[in-house]
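[step 3/7] inverse_fold.run input=structure_tokens len=113
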């Protein structure tokens, strides 16, 4: 038996950031393109764009710096705010995991292998 907690941010009861958006941002960093990041997750580009816009609205700042395609192609990179957000989110996620695992073992000792 195991426990899995994932932090999700909500505004007015609607999710706007969580592990999926964090992964999308990490893949944008890796691929330097929202389209390529979405494809690597088998996600429609339109869905990826909507997810990013919803997260930007929730946080009140831009997550991506984009350049329009053309002769040399377009691309995207994370803004400094997005880089900080991603680092903070991953650190918070790790803290929650460590705390919840310890408490889980205390409260449910029968779950130990």
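[step 3/7] decode complete -> sequence:
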């Amino acid at each position: 038996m195991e426990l899995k907690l994932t932090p999700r941010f909500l505004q007015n009861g609607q999710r706007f950031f969580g592990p999926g958006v964090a992964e999308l941002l990490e893949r944008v960093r890796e691929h330097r393109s929202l389209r390529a990041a979405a494809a690597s997750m088998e996600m429609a580009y339109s869905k990826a764009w909507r997810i990013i816009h919803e997260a930007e609205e929730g946080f009140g700042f831009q997550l991506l710096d984009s350049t329009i395609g053309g002769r040399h192609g377009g691309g995207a990179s994370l803004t400094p705010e997005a880089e900080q957000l991603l680092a903070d989110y991953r650190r918070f996620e790790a803290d929650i995991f460590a705390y919840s695992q310890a408490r889980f073992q205390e409260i449910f000792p029968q779950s130990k292998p």
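[step 4/7] annotate
DSSP finds four helices and four strands in the chain.
The beta strands are 9-11, 14-17, 64-67, 75-78.
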